[in-house]
Amino acid sequence: MQEVIKAGDLYLWIVKNTPVSMANIAHRSPRHAQINAVYTPTNYRKKGFASAIVANLCSILESEHLVPILYADLKNPTSNQVYKNIGFIEGGTITDIQFE
Q1: How far apart are CA 78 and CA 38, in angstroms?
Q2: Which numeric CATH code is attached to 2-86?
Q3: What does the pLDDT look like over 40-94, one tens digit per residue?
Q4: What is the residue-wise DSSP string for 44-70?
């Protein structure tokens, strides 16, 4: 986690001196940037904090002429709806395959 912090791409949404949500810009390529590690503690959820921080990161990335992308867990309809409300669209699915 210290390396993530040192990279300078981990962002906190702070309200009244209290961190209420976080998100990370994990990777930048020439055309895209991946957002991950979006998290809001349970007692701060459903107040728009995750939406605000992700939308803000999208604005930062768009000002860098990068297209924001993120991977969402299909088993979490709440976060998926948040991402759709911000403007993300489904681009496909990824399947984990394990070799034994």
Answers
A1: 13
A2: 3.40.630.30
A3: 999 999 999 999 999 999 999 999 999 999 988 888 888 888 899 999 998 888 8
A4: GTTSSHHHHHHHHHHHHHHHTT-EEEE
